[in-house]
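Support request from a user on the community tier.

User writes: "When I paste my structure tokens into the form, the page sometimes reloads and wipes my input. The last time it worked, I copied everything first. Here is what I submitted, just in case something in the input itself triggers the reload:"
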């Protein structure tokens, strides 16, 4: 995941400040969404098992408990390594998409260097498919990697792209995807709708990070919210259902409250305290009031 200039890693997740010299004040959109627990233990177990059974050293390790334990320990981190590799690939693809938008806006860009980084990792097909989508949809960028702030609920986030497509303003979030068994792009997760609607509900947009200069958010009227899955085989754009935006916004609001309460309890100190057993009363005391020594 890329790190916008005002974003900070904290004990309570990623948070945003109002300027580069300011302190973190509000959670990021993705931090809020992450309050919804998703059980990934099954996937992690599958990744670990798959790596272990496909390890060419497994046959030679049979009969050696120490070697089997070493292979199992290495396989147990397969999910984390896959996640980190996917995140790094996503950063490279997102960076390329941003540079294409900056080039179209006539701003300073490093498109060739971004493509070269993809080529170094044998990922240029992501860029090729993105270029095809950009041309096919006639994308006219209005702002790239724009940070928005909502004071009413208290959060901030950075949107991948605001663009005009087919005469309509669109707020766009890019997701880098792998392929299904039949060679198609894996589908988007519906949580992208929460991410997009939270971006749409921004009240200010960043102008100058160092100076902490913000301006009213001009794109929250009635935009089309698009999740765009970028894979090596194809780019698939999906519009958020307008009839369901209110429900997803309410869900986001609830998760924002969950984050606040979690931070409050985490910063309040230990919630449990040790307690000693009650003093034993002296059974010989007729009034049963004097404590035993």
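"...and here is what came back when it finally went through:"
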């Amino acid at each position: 995941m890329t790190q916008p200039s005002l974003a900070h890693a904290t004990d309570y997740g990623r948070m945003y400040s109002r300027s580069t010299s300011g302190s973190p004040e509000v959670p990021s959109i993705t931090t809020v969404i992450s309050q919804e627990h998703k059980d990934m233990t099954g996937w992690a177990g599958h990744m670990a098992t798959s790596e272990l059974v496909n390890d060419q050293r497994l046959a030679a390790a049979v009969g050696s408990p120490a070697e089997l334990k070493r292979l199992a320990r290495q396989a147990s981190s397969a999910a984390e390594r896959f996640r980190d590799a996917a995140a790094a690939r996503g950063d490279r693809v997102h960076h390329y998409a941003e540079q294409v938008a900056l080039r179209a806006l006539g701003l300073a860009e490093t498109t060739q260097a971004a493509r070269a980084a993809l080529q170094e990792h044998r990922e240029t097909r992501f860029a090729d498919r993105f270029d095809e989508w950009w041309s096919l949809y006639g994308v006219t960028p209005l702002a790239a990697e724009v940070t928005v702030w909502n004071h009413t609920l208290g959060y901030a986030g950075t949107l991948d792209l605001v663009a005009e497509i087919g005469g309509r303003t669109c707020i766009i979030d890019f997701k880098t995807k792998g392929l299904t068994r039949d060679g198609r792009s894996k589908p988007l997760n519906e949580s992208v709708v929460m991410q997009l609607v939270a971006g749409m509900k921004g009240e200010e947009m960043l102008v100058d990070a160092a100076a902490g200069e913000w301006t009213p958010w001009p794109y929250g009227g009635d935009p089309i919210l698009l999740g765009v899955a970028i894979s090596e085989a194809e780019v698939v754009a999906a519009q958020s259902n307008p009839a369901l935006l209110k429900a997803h916004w309410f869900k986001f609001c609830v998760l924002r409250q969950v984050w606040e309460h979690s931070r409050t309890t985490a910063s309040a100190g230990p919630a449990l305290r040790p307690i000693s057993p009650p003093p034993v009363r002296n059974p010989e005391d007729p009034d049963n009031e004097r404590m035993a020594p």
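Agent notes: The reload is a front-end session timeout and is unrelated to the input. The CA atoms of residues 48 and 75 lie 5 Å apart. Residues 7-265 form one domain. Escalated to web team.
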